C-alpha cells in the first residue's frame, strides 16, 4: 500500500490523482485508492482539510493531486442579497459547511435543511458538483501561497 504523510508545495507535476468527496477530504487518517486503483493510506497531520488541487507527496516520492469528487448537493438561490444573506446566516447558525458562489449557496444534500431554506424563501435545486465549502473564520491552519496566507481550515462541529 502506498503511504502518504505530507503535503507537497513544490512545482513537480503530479503523476497520480486521488479523487475524494468532501467528507473524505476532512479525514486525517484514511485508507482509499488512487484513480489508478492503487491502494493508498493517508496519514496527514490532524485537522488537515484537503482541497481540490492540493498536492501530496507519497513515501516513494510520487506527487499526488487531490481531485474533489462530484457529490449530491443542494444549491440555494434567493430573490435578493438580503434573502441570500439570511439563508447563509441560518446555515451558519447550524454549523453547516457552505460553499458560496455568485448568487448561490451550496450545501451537502439534506432534506431538513432543504425544507428550512425553502421556508426562508430560497429556490433550492439538487446539483452534482465538487463541494468546496468556505473555510472557518477562526480555524487558522495550513495554507498554500497561491491561495493567500490567511486561508483557514474548515471548522467542523460535532453533529454538523
UniProtKB/TrEMBL annotation:
Q: Where is it located?
A: Cytoplasm
Q: Which residues form the UreE urease accessory N-terminal domain?
A: 3-64
The Gene Ontology biological process terms listed for this entry are: protein folding; protein-containing complex assembly; urea metabolic process
Keywords on record:
Chaperone, Cytoplasm, Nickel
SMART domains to which the protein is assigned, alphabetical: UreE_N
The highest taxon in the source lineage is Bacteria
User: What InterPro entries does this protein's entry cite?
Assistant: UreE, UreE_C_dom, UreE_N, UreE_N_sf
Gene3D superfamilies with a match to the protein in the record: Urease metallochaperone UreE, N-terminal domain, UreE, C-terminal domain
What the entry lists under SUPFAM superfamilies is as follows:
Urease metallochaperone UreE, C-terminal domain, Urease metallochaperone UreE, N-terminal domain
**Sequence intervals crossing the membrane:** none
* Pfam family, any one: UreE_N
Answer whether the UniProt record assigns the keyword NADP to this protein. no
- Signal peptide start and end residues: none
Q: Name one GO molecular function term.
A: unfolded protein binding
- Chief location category: cytoplasm
Q: What's a GO cellular component annotated to this UniProt protein?
A: cytoplasm
Family per similarity comment: Belongs to the UreE family.
Role played? Involved in urease metallocenter assembly. Binds nickel. Probably functions as a nickel donor during metallocenter assembly.
| Full protein name | Urease accessory protein UreE
Amino acid at each position: 500500500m502506498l503511504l502518504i504523510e505530507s503535503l507537497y508545495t513544490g512545482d513537480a507535476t503530479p503523476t497520480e490523482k486521488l479523487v475524494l468527496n468532501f467528507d473524505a477530504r476532512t479525514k486525517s487518517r484514511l485508507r482509499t485508492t488512487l484513480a489508478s486503483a492503487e491502494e493508498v493510506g493517508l496519514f496527514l497531520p490532524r485537522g488537515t482539510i484537503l482541497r481540490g488541487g492540493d498536492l501530496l507527496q507519497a513515501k516513494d516520492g510520487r506527487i499526488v493531486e487531490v481531485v474533489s469528487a462530484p457529490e449530491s448537493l443542494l444549491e440555494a438561490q434567493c430573490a435578493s442579497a438580503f434573502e441570500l444573506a439570511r439563508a447563509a446566516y441560518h446555515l451558519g447558525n447550524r454549523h453547516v459547511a457552505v460553499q458560496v458562489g455568485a448568487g448561490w449557496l451550496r450545501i451537502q444534500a439534506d432534506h431538513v435543511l432543504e425544507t428550512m431554506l425553502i421556508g426562508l424563501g430560497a429556490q433550492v435545486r439538487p446539483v452534482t458538483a465538487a463541494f468546496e465549502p468556505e473555510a472557518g473564520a477562526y480555524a487558522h491552519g495550513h495554507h498554500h501561497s497561491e491561495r493567500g496566507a490567511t486561508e483557514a481550515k474548515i471548522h467542523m462541529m460535532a453533529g454538523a
